[in-house]
Write a structure and sequence with these properties.
The complex is a heterodimer of chains A (about 180) and B (about 120). Chain A is mainly alpha-helical. Chain A has helices spanning about 5-15, 20-40, 45-60, 70-95, 100-110, 120-130, 135-145, 150-155, 160-180. Chain A folds into two domains: about 1-95, Rna Polymerase Sigma Factor, Chain: A (Orthogonal Bundle); about 120-180, Winged helix-like DNA-binding domain superfamily/Winged helix DNA-binding domain (Arc Repressor Mutant, subunit A). Chain A is about 75% helix and about 0% strand. The model of chain A has no long low-confidence stretch (mean pLDDT about 90). In chain B, strands 1-2 form a two-stranded parallel sheet. In chain B, β1, α4 and β2 (about 120-125) form a beta-alpha-beta unit. Chain B starts with about 20 loop residues before the first helix and ends with a strand. Classes of the chains: A mainly alpha (about 180), B mainly alpha (about 120).
Chain lengths: ~180, ~120
């Protein structure tokens, strides 16, 4: 499959004749990564599926206005993160809970989810990660599971690299402490 | 012994799965939705209608409130008497218990005139 740069993709997208080709290429390149990023936030496959589709719909509707100040992948990740947070906020309103108490509910749903296939240690790790505040959890997942560079995480979350490093170190300690006690 | 746990030593596997062929169908689902236009919620579809109705309701409410605040409201005699009573009670202390209000409007006015004439602030009967 031919590789295109972000600039080429944006130009192709703006051209009506090559728009679909550009978009197909963007989906092929990013859909799995975006899906798993969303899935780690919302945990449920059904929710992750909805949000992933909504994310790419927004990409389709707005890519011609994309300024190119960041990588397309970072921009898509930002949309995906915001959509995921919006869903969690809706759940918070639905259950009249704080955003972090929603995480407890997510964990309960996770255990009942047929698409969870982790062993005991992985289950405990997910439980520990869910004790983190939501944004810290998202940042931790991006670094720990996806090995994303701090620069890229910084662009997605709008947080400084220094703060992210400290945040990650703090999250790691919390998780390890939780695992030791449980 | 409290063994230190280091999650950097864990296998960094995401313990979630997806239905078979999911990502193949995902791509076609996204493409189909893009072709048919963005999926809209009920509110998004009827937003213009709801907005216009809302504006009309607000205008209706404004004009109705404006009408009820008009100065064409009529005051009854009882309303006027009640107003005078309130006004006078600040200046006089007296007992009304023996006065029959039902048909003593003229007597009441006579009473007021008497009090005004003698400038009494306390009357016993």
């Amino acid at each position: 499959m031919c590789e295109y740069s972000d600039i080429q993709l944006i130009e192709m997208f703006k051209n009506a004749k090559t728009r679909n080709l550009a978009f197909n290429h963007i989906i092929n390149k990013n859909q799995q990564r975006v899906y798993w990023h969303i899935r780690k936030i919302v945990l449920s496959h059904e929710d992750a599926n909805d949000i992933t589709q909504d994310t790419f719909i927004k990409v389709w509707n707005n890519l011609d206005r994309f300024q190119g100040n960041s990588k397309i992948f970072t921009w898509i990740y930002t949309i995906a993160t915001n959509e995921s947070l919006n869903l969690l906020k809706k759940k918070k309103k639905q259950y009249f809970e704080s955003l972090d108490l929603v995480s407890n509910r997510l964990y309960e749903n996770l255990l009942a989810d047929s698409f969870f296939d982790g062993n005991e240690i992985e289950r405990k790790l997910q439980e520990a990660i869910l004790t983190l505040p939501t944004k810290q959890r998202i940042a931790f997942n991006m670094r720990y599971f996806e090995n994303m560079k701090y620069d890229d995480i910084s662009k997605v979350l709008g947080t400084s690299v220094g703060a992210l490093k400290a945040n990650y170190h703090n999250a790691k300690n919390k998780i390890e402490e939780f695992l030791k006690e449980n | 012994m409290n063994k230190k746990i280091d999650i950097d030593n864990f296998e960094r596997r995401v313990p979630f799965s997806v239905p078979d062929g999911y990502f193949i169908y995902l791509k076609s689902d996204i493409q189909n939705r893009c072709k048919s236009g963005e999926k809209k919620s009920f509110f998004e579809i009827f937003k213009p209608v709801v907005t216009v109705l809302g504006i009309l309701l607000i205008l209706f409410a404004i004009f109705n409130i404006k009408d009820t605040n008009s100065s064409d409201v009529e005051l009854t005699n009882n309303d006027l008497i009640a107003y005078i009573e309130d006004d006078l009670s600040d200046h006089f202390l007296y007992e009304y218990s023996f006065i029959d209000y039902e048909n003593e409007e003229d007597e009441f006015i006579e009473e007021i005139n008497y009090l005004l004439e003698y400038d009494s602030d306390y009357i016993f009967y």
